[in-house]
UniProtKB/TrEMBL annotation, chain A:
Belongs to the TsuA/YedE (TC 9.B.102) family. It comes from Sulfuricella denitrificans (strain DSM 22764 / NBRC 105220 / skB26). This is Sulphur transport domain-containing protein. One of its GO terms (cellular component) is plasma membrane. The keyword Transferase does not apply. It is found in: Cell inner membrane.
Length: 414, 130
């Protein structure tokens, strides 16, 4: 009897473990949790960014191979854990890795040879697009929309167009290229290794909590501030993996299969995020201009177009590639390498040729470049009323089109 | 179940937001940025061919420097170059001085302080996304 009772209570815990750590979360829940973390960052005077950290890794690489001085990359760089966005990216990968261990989904995955070519090509396009748009799907699209900037909507338009073009191009390659299409045999791990995954995942959680606590209690104010990033980056990676949250999928799927769940989850996240962050701006908790790129509208639109094509070939955007890296996808490691390298080169060259360099003679409170300016809707429209109306209307139209397409498949391009 | 959880999370966000609304920040770093670049930096470059970046000092060093108010190793004061009188003297040739000609001295000093602290070596302002 007592053994039966013992099994029963254990089964209850196992069932909860399965629900939370093994079964996929709804992307809607993922979107809401993601916004919660982003708001937490904003309250701390920070914002979520990915490309800055990815480009920083590329800067390191360019200095390592001697290309840095030619490009004008700064020679004295922070360490990987001291650069805010690099740290956030590393924690994102670690968070996804931890979630993959807890759900027993971590596995080194090797794609067919041709996929590595697409990863390199897609990664390069991601780097060029992000350098032009002043950020990736996070810093050029999601964040600016949360920060009431039309730059996010300009990149959104470019991403939509780029995703459609990218899909067409990818379909053409599938019909015309046969080389490198055979997948290598899957790697099989011993049962014993898989069995200890949850324990390893738990060890990672404890390690990260210990790390963040140590830094938070440090007398070094810089380390104390980084503790927030350690936790936020880890949480973002964990949430994105558990809910399979993916910006690339939100742009790609409606054109490919007409499935719109991920897109609707992103729309929901943007709606909640926009309203809450607008309160933070109105109450002057954070200055919106800290996360608005000076790229409205040419840089955002053109960058979005290039980035959109790139993310189709790469198999993910910046954050999506990072969390899939944590899950063990070799293709996305290649993507991120080329993304960071080309991002560093493109950023340096675009600045060198005065395309994205800041106009130092400008006396307006917003920054200007040759491809746009820091556009903030409440300042442009004289208040929040029109800002809510315009942003809300675009989100509503996006939702209506995606929902209509789910039923009719009118916008699928393959 | 999921709907209830989602509603709880949204309420938590709004609660956190309401809790923090009492905070405010001083100094407009964007105004400070314009003045620093176009008056301070342009003059330094013209006279010494060397710009002084906010990242060249820590937050504590910038605070101490501005508090000591000693410019050019004590030869004159920082406040002097922020003053309305100085702005009036260069506004014919300097767009930033012209734009902020009537801003009170102390307010402009706070704006500049906000900018250099934000961009200091150990400043915790968010890094640019690009």
């Amino acid at each position: 009897m007592s053994t039966e009772n013992g099994s029963a209570w254990l089964a209850g815990f196992k069932a909860d473990y399965e629900t939370i750590f093994v079964e996929d979360w709804s992307p809607y829940l993922g979107g809401i949790l993601l916004v919660l973390v982003i708001i937490g960052l904003m309250i701390n005077g920070l914002f979520w960014g990915v490309f800055g950290g990815v480009k920083f890794w590329g800067d390191w690489f360019n200095n390592l191979i001697g290309l840095g001085p030619l490009l004008g990359v700064p020679q004295e760089l922070d360490s990987f854990l001291m650069h805010r966005m690099s740290l956030m990216n590393i924690m994102l990968v670690l968070g996804a890795f931890c979630a993959a261990l807890l759900s027993r989904q971590f596995l080194p995955r090797r794609p067919p040879k041709l996929e590595y070519i697409w990863a390199a090509l897609g990664g390069c396009l991601l780097g060029i697009g992000a350098a032009l748009a002043g950020g990736c799907t996070t810093g050029g699209f999601f964040n600016p929309i949360l920060h009431a900037s039309p730059a996010g909507w300009a990149m959104w338009a470019g991403l939509l167009l780029g995703a459609a073009i990218g899909l067409k191009l990818l379909m053409w390659t599938l019909e015309n290229i046969e080389w490198g299409m055979v997948a290598p045999p899957p790697i099989r791990l011993p049962e014993g290794v898989l069995r200890i995954y949850p324990l390893l995942g738990l060890a990672v959680v404890v390690g990260v909590l210990f790390w963040a606590t140590q830094w938070y209690g440090s007398s070094n104010t810089q380390l104390a501030a980084r503790a927030v990033i350690v936790l936020a980056g880890f949480a973002i990676g964990f949430i994105m993996h558990r809910s399979r949250l993916c910006f690339a999928r939100s742009f790609r799927e409606p054109f490919m299969t007409a499935e719109g769940d991920m897109t609707k989850a992103v729309i929901l996240a943007l709606t909640i995020g926009m309203v809450v962050s607008s309160l933070l701006f109105q109450k002057k908790i954070i200055d919106p201009y800290v996360a608005i790129p000076a790229t409205f509208w040419i840089g955002s639109l053109l960058g979005g177009l290039i980035f959109g094509i790139g993310m189709i070939f790469a198999g993910g955007c910046a954050s999506g590639s990072l969390w899939r890296m944590g899950e063990g996808h070799a293709k996305l490691w290649v993507t991120i390498f080329f993304f960071s390298w080309s991002g560093s080169i493109a950023s340096a060259l675009l600045k060198k040729f005065k395309i994205t360099s800041i106009d130092e003679s400008n006396v307006e409170s917003f920054e200007k470049t040759a491809v746009g300016f820091q556009a903030y809707l409440p300042d442009m429209l004289g208040g929040w009323g029109w800002t809510y109306l315009i942003s809300g209307s675009i989100l509503l139209v996006w939702y209506l089109l995606v929902r209509y397409n789910e039923s009719t498949e009118k916008f699928t391009v393959i | 179940m999921k709907t209830k959880l989602s509603i709880s999370i949204v309420l938590a966000i709004l609660g956190t937001t309401a809790y923090t609304t009492a905070q405010a920040y001083d100094g407009d770093w964007k105004v400070g940025r314009i003045y620093y670049r176009q008056v301070c930096t342009s003059c330094h470059v013209a006279k010494t061919e060397k710009a002084i970046a906010p990242t060249s000092r820590t937050k504590a060093e910038w605070t101490a420097y501005l508090q000591a108010d000693k410019h050019a190793k004590g030869k004159d004061s920082v406040k002097q170059y922020i003053s309305q009188q100085y702005r009036a003297s260069i506004k014919a040739t300097n767009k930033a001085a012209e734009k902020f000609a009537d801003v009170p001295d102390q307010q402009l000093m706070e704006d500049i302080k906000a900018f250099v602290i934000k961009g200091a070596k150990d400043g915790d302002s968010p890094a640019s996304c690009s």
